[in-house]
Amino acid sequence: METAPHPLVIRARRLAEDLLAPHAQRVDQDGVPVSHIDALRTSGLLGMSAPEAYGGAGAPDAVAREVQEILAGACCSTWFVQTQHHTPVRLLARSESPARERLLGPLATGAILSGIAYAHVRAFPRVLVRATARRGGRRFDGTVPWYTGWGLNDVMLLAGVGEDAEVVFAFADAREQPGLRPSPPMRLAALSAARTVSLELDGLWVPEDSVVLRVGQEEFARGDIPRSANTSPAVFGVAYAALRLLERAPEAERTAGALRLRLDEVRRRAYALADHPVPHEHMAERLALRTRAYDLMRAATTAAIVAGGGRTMDLGSAAQRLAREGMFLLVQGQTAPVRQAHLASLGTAPPP
Ligand SMILES: Cc1cc2nc3c(=O)[nH]c(=O)nc-3n(C[C@H](O)[C@H](O)[C@H](O)COP(=O)(O)OP(=O)(O)OC[C@H]3O[C@@H](n4cnc5c(N)ncnc54)[C@H](O)[C@@H]3O)c2cc1C
Question: What positions does the domain Acyl-CoA dehydrogenase/oxidase N-terminal occupy (predicted)?
Answer without folding.
Answer: 11-110
